[in-house]
Amino acid sequence: MTVSGSWVDAVVAAGAVPASHVPEASLGRNDVEEFTGADPVEAGELRVHPLDDARPLALGAVSFLDGIEQWRVVGYGGITPIVRAHAAAAIRRRGPDRRLRTVAEAAEEVAITRLDRLPAGVRRALEAADVRVLDFPAEDAGQPARALAAARLEVQKARAALERRLAEQRLRALAADEWLVVDGVLSDSAALSEHPRALGVVKSHGAQYFEGAELERALTLRDAHRTGVFRPKMRGAGRDIYSWYVRLWPWEGNDLLYGLLRLEARAHPDTLGLAAPIAAWIRAQRAPIATPDRRWDRLLYPIHDVETYLRARAPSDLTSQPASRIPHPGSRLPRAAS
After folding, report:
1. Tally of CA atoms within 13 A in the half-sphere of 147 that contains its CB
2. What is the dihedral angle through the alpha carbons of 38, 43, 183, 31, rounded to the nearest 10 degrees?
3. For residues 240 and 232, is the Cβ–Cβ distance under 8 A?
4. Strand partners, 247
5. From CA 69, how far away is CA 66, in angstroms rounded?
6. Of 101, 116, 221, 299, whose CB is crowded by the most CB atoms within 10 A?
7. CB 52, CB 224: distance < 8 Å
8. What is the pLDDT of residues 69-124, one digit of tens each?
9. How far apart (Å, rounded) are the C-alpha atoms in residues 224 and 49?
10. pTM > 0.85: yes or no
11. What H or E segment, with its residue span, contains residue 181?
């Protein structure tokens, strides 16, 4: 029996009602959905620049970082959900031979619930189990839907912590001409946001940095074009970085966000000279296409490769319904009486 099976069985034996449900809200990560504002750096306003004459940045070696999160409600103590979660991150390095090889990885299983809301026996069983327990906030414990949303945030925090730890460790091991490309923002880490060869690739666009004509220029950016570099206004403990948009594929006939990426690099004068070569290099990473992933228009193939690697090593029962409880895969219909 696996360790995860042991602790789940233990809390069920202690009185938790068994469950097996992956809430819809657990799919992917959300960007912040608010207006934050930004200051253009290359000019007095946000402008659009073609990449026709830009030579892609010449890189000898590149390390790519990404992570995954998987979780499932495995039981209830009263109305309080008990979640089993798996978070993992990996870095795969591409050298001169163009082959991707894993150079670092980390994974963790955690239980997420609200210990002080569980029946005493269930709480004792979980506290005695060989698994780290994360509590979601007390204000989210009363209503199950809020509790699940709060649990999801805890899973995301666990994943982000693994990614940040691996990324910061990798920075110290980078060769003199090697870059680290991170799926996501750099500004969560001081070490990443200040490094001269760290690049953040952001696929989601919930945060709004511009309004009016500047927003329209950013979102209607044509294929093979980039915006000027801008400095996002920081939220909370965010670090100072430079950012710019680049379009990987024509959006006409699809959607405004189709093929649109936002890049992040350190806030330094050298970044201004690298903005066009980096954008051209990013467009060169479109091939091979990251299908069958539905985000292929914004997903760099090496990042897709890291995700594929991690999912192949993740617990299979967190992405499929257990056959012993569910009569048909993916179905939540009750088993018919014989």
Report:
1. 21
2. 20
3. no
4. 260
5. 11
6. 299
7. yes
8. 999 999 999 999 999 999 999 999 999 888 999 999 999 999 999 999 999 999 99
9. 9
10. yes
11. strand 178-183
| Tokens (6 digits) for 175 | 């060769």
User: Do the bridges between strand 100-113 and strand 80-94 make them parallel or antiparallel, or are there none, so unpaired?
Assistant: antiparallel
The one-character DSSP state at 105 is E
Which residue, chain included where needed, has tokens 């925090």? 157
Cβ proximity of 226 and 245 under 8 Å = yes
| Token pair belonging to 209 | 């940095």
**Other C-beta atoms lying within 10 Å of the C-beta of residue 44:** 8
- At which residue do the structure tokens 């819809």 appear? 24
- According to DSSP, residue 335 is labeled P
**How many whole angstroms separate alpha carbon 209 and alpha carbon 309?**
34
3-state helix, strand and coil shares in percent for the chain, rounded to the nearest 5: 30, 30, 40
CA 233 to CA 241: how far, in whole Å?
A: 9
- pLDDT 10s digits, 128-179: 999 999 999 999 988 888 999 999 999 999 999 999 999 999 999 999 899 9
Contacts of residue 158, Cβ cutoff 8 Å, sequence gap at least 6: 69, 85, 87, 108, 110, 134
